[in-house]
Amino acid sequence: MSVPWRYARSVLTSLLAAIGVLAGLGGLAVGGYALWRTRRAADDCRDLVHRLLPEGSGVDVRAIRDVGVVRYDALEEMSGARSFSLALLNAAGDGIVVTSINGRTESRTYAKAVRGGDAAEELSPEEYRAIRTARLGRHPEAGGAFPAPEDSGAVRTLVPGARPAGPPRSRG
Fold first, then answer.
1. Integer angstrom CA distances of residue 60 from 47, 64, 102, 133, 145
2. Is 66 a residue whose pLDDT tops 70?
3. Which of 85, 151, 157, 159 has the highest count of CB atoms within 10 angstroms of its CB?
């Protein structure tokens, strides 16, 4: 009587081993199919991005990415930081810096080209700070003012007597 139980136990063990092997192979097949679908979806996304962006670089370096604004009082007759310098730069540091000096009777606007974070023309301290703000991605008041380079000779004051923006002065 011990022989049939041994035989039945041996058959049962072999059957369970075969089921385990088949389940393992099925799991590998499902995993392989999931990997193939994931790679195909990733390739589709990559193709879509490369069609939307130039030359497949992943980033359009020509797009404006860095923006910096510095407000200040340029004229003694006005208060309230009505003048400003605005830097609009791309990832390479190319772009423009626009300065508007506003007074009671007149307004002047200047635009200067910027290449690699530097301008060919002389920059005012406010324009320099606007470019630094844009490149570093912080507002000058939030992280401290960016000092303009004093010794280089590339920075000059646009308006003599200009003063940094502060709280509006009271009239009277």
1. 16, 9, 35, 21, 30
2. yes
3. 85
